[in-house]
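Consider the following input, taken from an annotated entry for Glycosyltransferase subfamily 4-like N-terminal domain-containing protein (Chryseobacterium shandongense).
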Amino acid sequence: MNILIVSHVIFPFQSPRAYRTTELAVELAKNHHVTLVANCSPEEYSKWNSFDKINLKSFSKLSFVRKHSNKKEKYSLIDKVLLKLFRKRLTYPNIEFLWKIPETLKDMSNFDVLISIAAPHAIHWGCYRAIQNNPKLAKVWIADCGDPFMMNVFENPPSYFAKLEKQFMERADFVTIPIENARNSYYPEFHNKIRVIPQGFNFSNTKVFEGEIQNSVPTFAYAGVFYTGIRDPKLFLEYLCTIKEDFKFIIYTKDDGLIKDYYSRLNGKIEVREYIPREQLIYELSTMDFLINFENKESAQSPSKLIDYGLTKRPILSMQFDINNISDFNQFLKGNYSNSLEINVDQYNIENVANRFMELINTKL
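Applying the prediction step yields:
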Protein backbone atom coordinates (compact mmCIF):
# COMPACT_ATOMS: atom_id res chain seq x y z
CA MET A 1 0.00 0.00 0.00
CA ASN A 2 1.18 3.52 -0.85
CA ILE A 3 0.76 5.82 2.18
CA LEU A 4 1.28 9.58 2.53
CA ILE A 5 1.57 11.08 6.01
CA VAL A 6 1.63 14.85 6.58
CA SER A 7 2.50 16.35 9.97
CA HIS A 8 4.19 19.41 11.43
CA VAL A 9 7.12 17.84 13.30
CA ILE A 10 8.60 14.39 13.92
CA PHE A 11 11.39 12.79 15.95
CA PRO A 12 13.67 14.04 17.50
CA PHE A 13 11.21 16.80 18.44
CA GLN A 14 9.42 15.84 21.66
CA SER A 15 5.65 16.32 21.63
CA PRO A 16 2.61 14.01 21.54
CA ARG A 17 1.95 14.73 17.86
CA ALA A 18 5.61 14.21 16.92
CA TYR A 19 5.48 10.84 18.69
CA ARG A 20 2.18 9.98 16.98
CA THR A 21 3.60 10.72 13.55
CA THR A 22 6.99 9.08 13.98
CA GLU A 23 5.79 5.89 15.63
CA LEU A 24 2.99 5.40 13.09
CA ALA A 25 5.19 6.10 10.07
CA VAL A 26 7.96 3.76 11.23
CA GLU A 27 5.52 0.93 11.98
CA LEU A 28 3.57 1.28 8.72
CA ALA A 29 6.82 1.42 6.72
CA LYS A 30 7.63 -2.16 7.81
CA ASN A 31 5.03 -3.47 5.34
CA HIS A 32 4.07 -0.52 3.15
CA HIS A 33 5.53 2.31 1.07
CA VAL A 34 5.42 5.41 3.28
CA THR A 35 6.09 9.00 2.26
CA LEU A 36 6.33 11.32 5.24
CA VAL A 37 6.14 15.12 4.85
CA ALA A 38 7.10 17.27 7.85
CA ASN A 39 9.11 20.33 8.78
CA CYS A 40 12.43 18.52 9.02
CA SER A 41 15.87 18.13 7.46
CA PRO A 42 15.69 14.78 5.58
CA GLU A 43 19.48 14.51 5.34
CA GLU A 44 19.66 14.28 9.14
CA TYR A 45 17.86 10.94 9.29
CA SER A 46 20.41 8.63 7.63
CA LYS A 47 21.88 7.92 11.07
CA TRP A 48 18.63 6.36 12.32
CA ASN A 49 17.92 2.91 10.86
CA SER A 50 14.24 3.15 11.70
CA PHE A 51 13.83 5.76 8.92
CA ASP A 52 15.50 3.65 6.23
CA LYS A 53 12.22 2.56 4.65
CA ILE A 54 10.55 5.99 4.81
CA ASN A 55 10.59 8.44 1.90
CA LEU A 56 11.12 11.59 3.95
CA LYS A 57 10.33 15.03 2.56
CA SER A 58 10.18 18.54 3.96
CA PHE A 59 7.67 21.28 3.25
CA SER A 60 8.39 23.96 0.70
CA LYS A 61 10.37 26.74 2.38
CA LEU A 62 8.37 28.11 5.29
CA SER A 63 8.48 31.84 5.95
CA PHE A 64 6.73 32.09 9.32
CA VAL A 65 6.63 28.68 11.02
CA ARG A 66 9.65 28.31 13.30
CA LYS A 67 8.99 24.97 15.02
CA HIS A 68 11.28 22.45 13.33
CA SER A 69 11.99 18.77 13.95
CA ASN A 70 15.78 19.17 13.98
CA LYS A 71 16.43 22.78 14.93
CA LYS A 72 15.82 24.88 18.00
CA GLU A 73 13.10 27.46 17.55
CA LYS A 74 14.44 31.00 17.18
CA TYR A 75 12.06 33.93 17.29
CA SER A 76 13.03 37.42 16.22
CA LEU A 77 11.46 40.51 17.71
CA ILE A 78 9.20 40.75 14.65
CA ASP A 79 8.16 37.11 15.14
CA LYS A 80 7.21 37.83 18.74
CA VAL A 81 5.17 40.88 17.77
CA LEU A 82 3.33 38.92 15.05
CA LEU A 83 2.65 36.10 17.49
CA LYS A 84 1.16 38.49 20.02
CA LEU A 85 -1.02 40.16 17.40
CA PHE A 86 -2.15 37.21 15.30
CA ARG A 87 -1.68 33.91 17.17
CA LYS A 88 -5.35 33.72 18.10
CA ARG A 89 -6.82 35.81 15.29
CA LEU A 90 -5.08 33.90 12.48
CA THR A 91 -3.59 30.86 14.27
CA TYR A 92 -0.28 32.47 13.33
CA PRO A 93 2.22 31.16 12.35
CA ASN A 94 0.58 27.79 11.59
CA ILE A 95 -1.87 29.35 9.13
CA GLU A 96 1.05 29.20 6.68
CA PHE A 97 0.37 25.47 6.21
CA LEU A 98 -2.88 26.45 4.50
CA TRP A 99 -0.96 27.35 1.34
CA LYS A 100 2.38 25.61 1.87
CA ILE A 101 0.92 22.09 2.00
CA PRO A 102 -0.81 22.39 -1.40
CA GLU A 103 2.44 23.79 -2.77
CA THR A 104 4.45 20.91 -1.31
CA LEU A 105 2.06 18.19 -2.48
CA LYS A 106 1.22 19.59 -5.92
CA ASP A 107 3.32 17.03 -7.83
CA MET A 108 2.29 14.01 -5.75
CA SER A 109 -0.57 11.68 -6.63
CA ASN A 110 -1.96 8.14 -6.60
CA PHE A 111 -1.53 7.39 -2.91
CA ASP A 112 -3.88 4.82 -1.43
CA VAL A 113 -4.27 6.89 1.71
CA LEU A 114 -3.40 10.31 3.11
CA ILE A 115 -3.06 10.56 6.89
CA SER A 116 -2.87 14.16 8.09
CA ILE A 117 -1.91 14.66 11.72
CA ALA A 118 -2.88 17.65 13.86
CA ALA A 119 -2.32 19.79 15.88
CA PRO A 120 -1.93 22.29 14.38
CA HIS A 121 -5.24 21.94 12.58
CA ALA A 122 -3.87 24.03 9.73
CA ILE A 123 -2.29 20.72 8.63
CA HIS A 124 -5.82 19.45 7.85
CA TRP A 125 -6.80 22.74 6.22
CA GLY A 126 -3.78 22.59 3.93
CA CYS A 127 -4.45 18.95 3.05
CA TYR A 128 -8.06 19.84 2.21
CA ARG A 129 -6.84 22.45 -0.26
CA ALA A 130 -4.27 20.03 -1.68
CA ILE A 131 -6.99 17.45 -2.37
CA GLN A 132 -9.29 20.10 -3.84
CA ASN A 133 -6.49 21.09 -6.22
CA ASN A 134 -5.56 17.49 -6.99
CA PRO A 135 -8.36 14.94 -6.37
CA LYS A 136 -5.98 12.14 -7.41
CA LEU A 137 -3.68 12.82 -4.44
CA ALA A 138 -5.12 9.92 -2.43
CA LYS A 139 -8.06 7.50 -2.55
CA VAL A 140 -8.72 7.72 1.19
CA TRP A 141 -8.13 10.58 3.64
CA ILE A 142 -7.84 10.09 7.40
CA ALA A 143 -7.60 13.30 9.44
CA ASP A 144 -6.04 12.47 12.82
CA CYS A 145 -6.77 14.96 15.61
CA GLY A 146 -4.87 14.98 18.90
CA ASP A 147 -7.07 17.69 20.41
CA PRO A 148 -10.29 19.38 19.28
CA PHE A 149 -10.11 22.81 17.68
CA MET A 150 -13.31 24.81 17.24
CA MET A 151 -15.05 23.31 20.27
CA ASN A 152 -11.92 23.26 22.40
CA VAL A 153 -12.92 25.10 25.58
CA PHE A 154 -9.28 25.81 26.40
CA GLU A 155 -8.57 27.61 23.13
CA ASN A 156 -11.94 29.11 22.10
CA PRO A 157 -10.83 30.11 18.57
CA PRO A 158 -12.64 32.80 16.54
CA SER A 159 -15.89 31.64 14.95
CA TYR A 160 -14.70 32.35 11.40
CA PHE A 161 -12.45 29.27 11.54
CA ALA A 162 -15.57 27.09 11.64
CA LYS A 163 -15.70 27.08 7.85
CA LEU A 164 -12.22 25.61 7.61
CA GLU A 165 -12.99 22.95 10.22
CA LYS A 166 -16.23 21.93 8.53
CA GLN A 167 -14.59 21.83 5.11
CA PHE A 168 -11.91 19.33 6.07
CA MET A 169 -14.28 17.19 8.18
CA GLU A 170 -16.78 17.00 5.34
CA ARG A 171 -14.09 16.02 2.83
CA ALA A 172 -12.16 13.54 5.02
CA ASP A 173 -13.30 9.91 4.94
CA PHE A 174 -12.50 9.45 8.63
CA VAL A 175 -11.56 11.65 11.57
CA THR A 176 -9.57 9.81 14.23
CA ILE A 177 -9.36 10.94 17.84
CA PRO A 178 -7.40 9.40 20.77
CA ILE A 179 -10.19 9.14 23.36
CA GLU A 180 -13.96 8.65 23.22
CA ASN A 181 -14.58 11.60 25.59
CA ALA A 182 -13.41 13.97 22.86
CA ARG A 183 -16.18 13.04 20.42
CA ASN A 184 -18.60 15.71 21.65
CA SER A 185 -15.97 18.39 21.04
CA TYR A 186 -16.55 18.05 17.29
CA TYR A 187 -19.54 19.17 15.23
CA PRO A 188 -22.40 16.63 15.61
CA GLU A 189 -22.98 16.33 11.86
CA PHE A 190 -19.57 14.64 11.52
CA HIS A 191 -19.78 12.21 14.43
CA ASN A 192 -20.45 9.34 12.02
CA LYS A 193 -16.93 9.85 10.60
CA ILE A 194 -15.16 9.77 13.95
CA ARG A 195 -13.20 6.70 15.01
CA VAL A 196 -11.20 6.32 18.23
CA ILE A 197 -7.57 5.22 17.77
CA PRO A 198 -5.32 5.90 20.77
CA GLN A 199 -1.76 7.14 20.80
CA GLY A 200 0.76 4.41 19.97
CA PHE A 201 4.32 3.63 20.99
CA ASN A 202 6.92 0.98 20.31
CA PHE A 203 7.39 -0.78 23.64
CA SER A 204 10.36 -2.94 22.59
CA ASN A 205 12.98 -0.36 23.63
CA THR A 206 11.33 0.62 26.89
CA LYS A 207 13.41 -0.17 29.98
CA VAL A 208 12.29 0.25 33.58
CA PHE A 209 13.96 -0.17 36.96
CA GLU A 210 13.41 -3.75 38.08
CA GLY A 211 14.88 -3.56 41.59
CA GLU A 212 13.26 -2.78 44.92
CA ILE A 213 12.29 0.87 45.38
CA GLN A 214 14.26 2.20 48.35
CA ASN A 215 13.88 5.98 48.41
CA SER A 216 14.90 7.54 51.74
CA VAL A 217 11.67 9.59 51.86
CA PRO A 218 8.38 9.20 49.94
CA THR A 219 9.32 10.30 46.43
CA PHE A 220 6.79 11.03 43.74
CA ALA A 221 6.94 12.71 40.34
CA TYR A 222 4.98 14.50 37.65
CA ALA A 223 6.01 14.90 34.01
CA GLY A 224 4.36 17.36 31.65
CA VAL A 225 3.14 20.91 31.26
CA PHE A 226 0.83 22.99 33.44
CA TYR A 227 -1.99 25.29 32.33
CA THR A 228 -3.58 27.96 34.50
CA GLY A 229 -7.09 26.93 35.45
CA ILE A 230 -6.93 23.77 33.34
CA ARG A 231 -4.16 21.48 34.50
CA ASP A 232 -3.29 23.62 37.45
CA PRO A 233 -1.17 22.34 40.40
CA LYS A 234 -1.62 25.28 42.76
CA LEU A 235 -4.22 23.75 45.10
CA PHE A 236 -2.12 20.61 45.37
CA LEU A 237 1.06 22.58 46.04
CA GLU A 238 -0.71 24.63 48.68
CA TYR A 239 -1.65 21.40 50.40
CA LEU A 240 1.93 20.14 50.21
CA CYS A 241 3.02 23.28 52.06
CA THR A 242 0.96 22.12 55.07
CA ILE A 243 2.68 18.73 55.34
CA LYS A 244 5.42 18.60 57.98
CA GLU A 245 6.75 15.13 57.10
CA ASP A 246 9.62 14.78 54.64
CA PHE A 247 8.93 13.95 51.01
CA LYS A 248 10.39 14.71 47.58
CA PHE A 249 8.23 15.90 44.67
CA ILE A 250 10.12 15.80 41.36
CA ILE A 251 8.64 17.66 38.39
CA TYR A 252 9.79 17.27 34.78
CA THR A 253 8.55 20.29 32.86
CA LYS A 254 9.63 22.93 30.35
CA ASP A 255 7.87 25.82 32.07
CA ASP A 256 7.89 26.38 35.83
CA GLY A 257 5.86 29.59 35.76
CA LEU A 258 3.03 28.18 37.91
CA ILE A 259 5.27 26.49 40.47
CA LYS A 260 8.35 28.68 41.03
CA ASP A 261 6.68 30.57 43.89
CA TYR A 262 6.67 27.32 45.87
CA TYR A 263 10.41 26.61 45.73
CA SER A 264 11.17 28.50 48.93
CA ARG A 265 7.92 27.58 50.67
CA LEU A 266 8.55 23.86 50.19
CA ASN A 267 12.17 24.25 51.30
CA GLY A 268 13.86 21.65 49.11
CA LYS A 269 10.94 19.21 49.02
CA ILE A 270 10.23 20.10 45.39
CA GLU A 271 12.72 19.59 42.56
CA VAL A 272 12.19 20.74 38.97
CA ARG A 273 14.05 19.03 36.16
CA GLU A 274 14.35 19.73 32.44
CA TYR A 275 12.62 17.54 29.87
CA ILE A 276 14.68 14.51 28.89
CA PRO A 277 14.27 11.96 26.07
CA ARG A 278 11.18 9.83 26.50
CA GLU A 279 12.93 6.47 27.04
CA GLN A 280 15.17 8.01 29.70
CA LEU A 281 12.18 9.68 31.35
CA ILE A 282 10.27 6.40 31.63
CA TYR A 283 13.25 4.76 33.33
CA GLU A 284 13.65 7.63 35.82
CA LEU A 285 9.94 7.63 36.60
CA SER A 286 10.12 3.90 37.30
CA THR A 287 12.41 4.63 40.28
CA MET A 288 9.75 6.73 42.06
CA ASP A 289 7.46 5.49 44.82
CA PHE A 290 4.47 6.73 42.84
CA LEU A 291 3.48 9.15 40.08
CA ILE A 292 1.09 12.10 40.01
CA ASN A 293 -1.31 12.90 37.19
CA PHE A 294 -3.16 16.22 37.24
CA GLU A 295 -6.54 15.76 35.58
CA ASN A 296 -7.70 18.36 33.10
CA LYS A 297 -10.65 20.46 34.19
CA GLU A 298 -12.52 19.19 31.12
CA SER A 299 -12.43 15.52 30.03
CA ALA A 300 -12.23 16.01 26.24
CA GLN A 301 -8.43 15.89 26.42
CA SER A 302 -6.26 13.34 28.16
CA PRO A 303 -2.48 13.70 28.52
CA SER A 304 -0.56 11.09 26.51
CA LYS A 305 1.94 11.06 29.37
CA LEU A 306 -0.39 8.61 31.10
CA ILE A 307 0.81 5.96 28.65
CA ASP A 308 4.38 6.50 29.79
CA TYR A 309 3.19 6.36 33.39
CA GLY A 310 1.58 3.01 32.72
CA LEU A 311 4.80 1.63 31.25
CA THR A 312 6.74 2.47 34.42
CA LYS A 313 4.71 -0.09 36.42
CA ARG A 314 4.57 2.40 39.31
CA PRO A 315 1.37 3.33 41.21
CA ILE A 316 -0.42 6.35 39.72
CA LEU A 317 -2.47 8.89 41.64
CA SER A 318 -4.75 10.93 39.41
CA MET A 319 -5.42 14.19 41.24
CA GLN A 320 -8.76 15.82 40.57
CA PHE A 321 -8.77 19.49 39.60
CA ASP A 322 -10.34 20.50 42.94
CA ILE A 323 -8.16 17.98 44.89
CA ASN A 324 -11.28 16.47 46.45
CA ASN A 325 -9.43 13.15 46.52
CA ILE A 326 -6.58 14.49 48.69
CA SER A 327 -7.25 11.66 51.16
CA ASP A 328 -6.00 9.26 48.47
CA PHE A 329 -2.75 11.22 48.35
CA ASN A 330 -2.36 10.89 52.10
CA GLN A 331 -2.71 7.13 51.74
CA PHE A 332 -0.13 7.08 48.93
CA LEU A 333 2.34 8.85 51.22
CA LYS A 334 1.86 5.98 53.67
CA GLY A 335 2.46 3.39 50.95
CA ASN A 336 -1.18 2.42 50.45
CA TYR A 337 -1.70 2.42 46.68
CA SER A 338 -5.08 0.68 46.57
CA ASN A 339 -6.64 3.57 44.63
CA SER A 340 -3.95 3.61 41.96
CA LEU A 341 -5.12 4.41 38.43
CA GLU A 342 -5.11 1.29 36.24
CA ILE A 343 -3.90 1.71 32.65
CA ASN A 344 -4.18 -1.00 29.98
CA VAL A 345 -0.99 -0.28 28.03
CA ASP A 346 -1.57 -3.01 25.41
CA GLN A 347 -4.03 -0.80 23.56
CA TYR A 348 -1.20 1.71 23.06
CA ASN A 349 1.22 -0.76 21.48
CA ILE A 350 2.07 0.73 18.08
CA GLU A 351 1.52 -2.62 16.35
CA ASN A 352 -2.09 -2.63 17.53
CA VAL A 353 -2.55 1.05 16.69
CA ALA A 354 -1.15 0.63 13.15
CA ASN A 355 -3.46 -2.34 12.62
CA ARG A 356 -6.42 -0.16 13.61
CA PHE A 357 -5.45 2.36 10.95
CA MET A 358 -5.05 -0.37 8.32
CA GLU A 359 -8.45 -1.85 9.16
CA LEU A 360 -9.98 1.59 8.70
CA ILE A 361 -8.25 2.13 5.37
CA ASN A 362 -9.30 -1.26 4.04
CA THR A 363 -12.97 -0.48 4.62
CA LYS A 364 -12.67 2.18 1.89
CA LEU A 365 -10.41 0.42 -0.63
